[in-house]
Amino acid sequence: MRKIFTRLHFHRSIHAVLTCLLATAFLLACISPATAQSNKKNKKDKAQPADSSKTMIPMSDEQQIDYMLSEMLGAWQVGDVEKLHATYADDVSLVNGSWAPPVIGWANYLPIYQQQRSHMQRVRMDRMNTYVKVIGNTGWACYQWDFSADVDGQPTQSQGQTTVVVEKRNNHWIIVHNHTSLSPAAQKPAPANPATPQQPPAKPQGQ
After folding, report:
1. Is position 201 within any domain?
2. CA–CA gap between residue 18 and residue 151 (Å, rounded)
3. Is residue 69 classed exposed, middle or buried when 0-12, 13-18 and 19+ CB atoms within 10 A define those classes?
4. What DSSP state is assigned to residue 54?
5. Chain centroid offset of residue 194 CA
6. Rounded Cα–Cα distance for residues 207 and 204 (Å)
7. How confident is the model at residue 97 (pLDDT cuts 50, 70, 90)?
8. Is residue 109 within 8 Å of 133, Cβ to Cβ?
9. Is residue 156 classed as helix, strand or coil in its secondary structure?
10. pTM of the model
11. How far is CA 53 from CA 49, 50, 56, 78, 153, in A?
């Protein structure tokens, strides 16, 4: 009888120990994910300091206009019509490159630009000596430019000056008038070639 009681007591002790171990394991299993998640969150928060590189430094109106001119010339060179349009007002006016009335409106300027651009390869346009003036929501800028390209397969170079009138619309500076002129004194003649007639210097319109 004593042996039976001892065995029962032994089995009950083992059962109690196992129950305790299982309960402890279950408790740890519940706590560990929450603790791990908390630790992970804390590490993530510490590993993500404020990204100062994304802080935009505000530009002055003059700097915004200068940047817009760079965007315009870059789009003009590569033939990006969408980006070019972003720099021009729909009601823009442009002094015509020939003896003709001014070009009024983006819709009228676009086919002229596309026709002109289709004859050019290896286009390069450098801007220099830019002057920008702002009064309220209106401003103007003038600059010199140096142009080179292969026009209909012939190397062409020219220099000139451009003046643009700009307006700030919807917090964005755009060109409302463009006057580009070729500088006759700065024309660079192409090398003489008796077999090929010399091409007249190009006047890039809408710079």
Report:
1. no
2. 91
3. buried
4. G
5. 46
6. 7
7. confident
8. no
9. strand
10. 0.66
11. 11, 9, 8, 29, 45
